[in-house]
Design a protein that fits this description.
- The chain is built from no helices and 31 strands.
- By secondary structure, it is an all-beta fold.
- The radius of gyration is 25 Å and the shape is elongated.
């Protein structure tokens, strides 16, 4: 068995454009209209369709003031609030959903603050929920739904509970920061003698999947494909990987290629793959195809699979108990 690293790029163009799947209503061009240097673009009143990446859980508990899920028991929220990460037209659009509880703090006021961070952990701007006040010492619950800021700069958010002081200023009494990290999706392609997946190979196929690691940073999304390209019992055959990038408007953005590899005999041969040739905020979907080189010197697909960074419409909910497509919890 050979084990060789696939070249990063094979520079040979592919002029054939495959048929594209078109879905109306998902692609919305958003004109922010913000002045240069403005700290934020506010989404209120602007028509747009978000697509859903995943959620983080957040729970903040302090004496008399708590932020979490909608249920409350034994002096604290039972479940967490959620930060839902959405993207629209290459802009990050986080949404905070939860419940602010005031208990045994009659006459006091509180609010939720959301801090938005750009690269290097620099706080870029902030937004506030409504001020709410407890008229008495009984438990009070206030629904929070905040998503006013949309920008490609956002990498991280901070959620804070603020209490109003007797002087009228606001004091942070509890907070939590959440960063949108790398998201991994498995991908495996199996065919007759041509396979892509993990390194281990048994019974004519890879036993595990390869990976696409999606990383959002500084307004750019980079899908990184890693794994192993396997050729088995195909003496003299040559293969490569074709990567097609599709935008959030479901248009083809670019086509890139891995290097050409060839099997010297009918044994099993494997090559490591590590490809990330394109970074762009508009990337929505990556289609990976194994191509083989025919006797007529033409590349043809022998197996394909595709993965998306987003997994559904914003604020999506499972339509039944067996549908978990909208339950991607981020670390």
């Amino acid at each position: 068995m050979t084990d060789t690293r696939v070249p990063i790029h094979d520079h040979e163009p592919d002029r054939r454009r495959p048929q594209q799947l078109r879905t109306s209503g998902l692609a919305v061009a958003l004109a922010l209209g913000a002045a240069a240097g403005a700290p934020a673009a506010f989404a209120e009143g602007r028509p747009m369709v978000d697509t859903f990446i995943g959620t983080h859980s957040v729970k903040i508990s302090t004496p008399g003031f708590d932020f979490g899920g909608s249920d409350y028991f034994a002096g604290a929220p039972v479940g967490p609030a959620k930060v839902q990460w959405n993207i629209v037209d290459g802009q990050m659009h986080p949404r905070v959903d939860g419940t602010l509880f005031l208990n045994n703090v009659g006459g006091q006021c509180a609010r939720i603050r959301v801090d938005y961070y750009a690269g290097a952990g620099i706080r870029w701007t902030s937004a506030h929920g409504n001020e709410v006040c407890a008229p008495d010492d009984r438990l009070r619950a206030y629904t929070v739904a905040l998503d006013p800021v949309i920008s490609s700069k956002i990498n991280e958010v901070g959620i804070a509970v603020e209490k109003k002081t007797t002087s009228g200023s606001w004091q942070t009494i509890g907070s939590q920061r959440l960063k949108l990290g790398t998201i991994d999706t498995p991908i495996k392609i199996t065919g007759d003698g041509f396979d892509f997946g993990g390194k281990t190979f048994a019974f004519g196929a890879p036993t595990q999947a390869g990976r696409i690691a999606w990383t959002w940073s500084e307004g750019r999304l980079t899908p990184r494909l890693t794994g192993t390209l396997h050729l088995n019992n195909v003496a003299g055959a040559c293969a490569r990987l074709r990567l097609e990038y599709t935008s959030n408007q479901l248009d083809e953005m670019a086509v890139e290629f891995g290097g050409k590899v060839c099997a010297p005999d009918n044994g099993h041969h494997a090559w490591d793959v590590d490809l990330s040739p394109l970074s762009d905020a508009r990337i929505h979907l990556l289609t990976v195809t194994i191509q083989s080189l025919g006797p007529d010197d033409t590349w043809r697909g022998v197996g394909t699979d595709w993965k998306t960074y987003v997994i559904g419409l914003s604020r999506c909910r499972p339509i039944n108990t067996f549908d978990h497509s909208c339950e991607r919890e981020l670390d």
